Amino acid sequence: MSNNERVALVSGSTSGIGAHIARQLHADGCTVCISGRSAERGAALQDELGARSHFFPADLTADDAAQALVDAVVERFGRLDVLVNNAAIDYSGPLLSASAADIRSTLDTNTVAAILLLQAAARSMIGSGGGSIINITSRLASAGVPGLSIYTASKGAMLSLTRTAAIEFAEHGIRVNAVAPGLTRTPLYDEWMAGLPDSDQVARDQAAAIPLGRIAEPEDVAAAVSFLASPGAAYITGVSLPVDGGFLAK
Fold this sequence. Notes:
This protein has 250 residues and is of the alpha/beta class.
């Protein structure tokens, strides 16, 4: 199947890494389904991409939202070939200070909603020639960092799910992989850096901790997703591809 016949859904794609993934898949020739909670940003990205794109508003923590989103995509475009499971929220703070509400909110978005979307996408792909599911995890799924325990737990669960789902879905021609970004220059990163008293020194320290000497750009992550979604990765499933400049290799 050529790229211009493929339909891709990118959750959490109204900003940040997700928006760059949507742009990359659209440039690859896919029909791109943008999804997120911000109608304003979603409509703006649809206008930017133009033909072969459509915004589907969704809050994936709502009951039955994942299945409803996939149903809407299939109703409009007739099929779903690629899911990029990207929607997530951040949480930082000492483990002992995390409240039950904080834990549930993080896991509900980053893990439970992502699993439900993976299930819904896989159901639509079974019997229609298979497809590709790509979970956006994090380098922190494989490396402990103080203050990020709840977030890492949510992403670690998705890493484990990726491996098992790949085995379960292989007989249906559905590939399941993960992309694990390192520290990436997004609007949230820029906002965080702007609030630091010595952001230049922090940036130098961050770069020095990465073998390639810089943090990731969203385009780096999008390029990895593009490959795993492509026919060129037809024999790759169950892997986690770090996009971290060599951080996990140390």
